[in-house]
Write a structure and sequence with these properties.
The protein is mostly helical and 352 residues long. It is 79% helix and 0% strand. The protein has 13 helices and no strands. Helix 5 (95-112) runs antiparallel to helix 6 and helix 11 (261-284) runs antiparallel to helix 12 (288-311). The two termini are 29 Å apart.
């Protein structure tokens, strides 16, 4: 579709207005994030938005994009190769050779991530590789000196040792790796240690995992304003936080006769938090992504409860499957309709 003259005029006016809002005396072109904000508010048509992006992007934009992604893919393949190397040559390598190679890799990648001459993407890849190699080092150490320790010690040690690096670096990619490791460690601690001592409070595992996700959210909140990668991970943390808190509610939706008062308390807390977030994302921050995530997990719990009620009716298999399909299609369609209407209202409110 060709860009119309009206769209080009809109682009020029928008870029002029955005440039005039900067504090410097010399006009500067708007950033892609500013244009995306105007596009979300409905101030820019879609074709004009893409035209403006082409005007402000440097000529080597796609070359740098390809370099970053190829570097990421290469680092993933390299780390996978290191793991398979140790797995294939496990019998031939001496234990000091196994540990020495991994320690050298951790030291080298950690030190190179401190070199300021490297780009931000390269430093993120190097530090992320150091975090992953640390986990491989602990796993190899556990295989060499088998003490019969539980699996949670591996992930807990991994998270504790790498936390200072990740906290000092303040980069989104290492934080995401550390988040996954710490969530697994939290799960295993509850599964292998605390569940034996606190049987009645077993559902508190979901609260602890949600609090951990909330902790990462607060730490990385400032980075979401300057980093596209951090903003993507932000919604991952929100999804995990709400998702694990919704598990007790799912248990109640499936079987409300064999749940503890603690499970009811967590489910009610999740429901109140979800309602607060819906109000926040709709009327305060006006973010459709947050509204979608919160509404979707509420819809899933409601849908599971409805399907469970239908299954208790003891209908024929054909009737049950028909009602299941009807409920799923109707519920999801209604959710999509509501979200689309709310997105249109947000754009109108932003224009006013």
């Amino acid at each position: 579709m060709a860009t119309s003259k009206a769209d080009i005029k809109i682009v020029n006016i928008t870029m002029t207005l955005t440039s005039s809002m900067t504090t410097s005396t010399k006009p500067t072109p708007p950033t892609p994030k500013q244009l995306h904000h105007l596009f979300q508010q409905g101030a820019l048509p879609r074709q004009a938005y893409y035209q403006a992006l082409d005007m402000i992007r440097p000529d080597d934009y796609w070359l740098r994009w390809a370099e970053r992604h190829l570097m990421l893919i290469g680092s993933i393949l390299l780390l996978a190769g290191i793991m398979f190397f140790f797995a294939y040559n496990w019998q031939e390598l001496h234990r000091f050779g196994k540990l020495g190679l991994l320690e050298a890799g951790v030291t080298l990648t950690a030190l190179l991530s401190l070199v300021s001459r490297f780009s931000l993407a390269a430093r993120q890849v190097l530090l992320t590789s150091a975090v992953v190699l640390t986990g491989i080092l602990f796993a190899v150490f556990g295989q060499i000196y088998q003490t019969g320790a539980d699996a949670y010690t591996l992930f807990l040690s991994w998270a504790v040792v790498t936390l200072p690096w990740v906290a000092l670096a303040r980069l989104p990619a290492p934080w995401a790796i550390w988040f996954v490791v710490s969530e697994v460690a939290c799960w295993l601690v509850w599964e292998q240690v605390l569940s034996i001592q606190f049987t009645a409070w077993i559902d508190l595992r979901w609260v602890s995992m949600a609090l951990l996700a909330g902790f990462i959210l607060l730490i990385n909140y400032k980075q979401t304003r300057t980093s596209v990668l951090a903003s993507k991970f932000h919604w991952l943390y929100v999804t995990v936080m709400l998702g694990v808190m919704a598990i007790p509610a799912l248990k109640i939706a499936i079987d409300d006769y064999h749940v503890t008062p603690q499970t009811w308390g967590i489910a009610i807390t999740w429901l109140v938090l979800s309602c607060i977030l819906i109000v926040f994302y709709r009327f305060i921050s006006q973010q459709i992504y947050g509204l979608t995530i919160t509404s979707l997990q509420l819809t899933v719990v409601l849908l599971v409860w409805l399907l469970h009620q239908v299954s208790d009716m003891r209908l024929t298999d054909t009737s049950t499957l028909f009602i299941f399909g009807l409920l799923i299609v109707t519920t999801i369609s209604l959710l999509v309709f509501i979200l689309r209407s709310q997105a249109q209202l947000m754009r109108k409110e932003a224009k006013e």
